[in-house]
Write a structure and sequence with these properties.
The chain is an alpha/beta fold and 87 residues long. It is built from three helices and three strands; from the N terminus they run E-H-H-E-H-E. The protein has a three-stranded parallel β-sheet with strand order 1-3-2, with helices on one face. Helix 2 packs across helix 3. The radius of gyration is 13 Å and the shape is globular.
Length: 87
């Protein structure tokens, strides 16, 4: 399943979920950011529950492989709030 939208604020539920994954007290998974970490996760066979990607990367071989393994993929058109991941 692939969703597509623009994130406009830090209050976006997806942003909140991702930020919570960095909090060991409430994390129910692991949030990895960046292509290098994605590549390493694929190498070791780590399951991908939710892949968030910008459209420009969907044609790369690495992201195509990750999308094939992901339970859910979300394409984020753009992030309006550059500080969305800061606590």
């Amino acid at each position: 399943m692939t969703d597509s939208f623009v994130i406009t604020s830090r209050q976006n539920p997806l942003i909140q979920e991702l930020r919570d994954r960095n909090d060991p007290a409430i994390a129910k998974g692991l949030f990895l950011e960046g292509l290098h970490l994605l590549e390493e996760a694929l190498k070791v066979g780590m399951p991908i529950h939710h892949l968030i990607v910008i459209p420009a990367l969907t044609e790369t071989e690495l992201v195509k492989r990750a999308m094939a393994k992901a339970k859910k993929t979300t394409q984020v058109q753009r992030l309006c709030d550059e500080g969305a991941f800061r606590r």
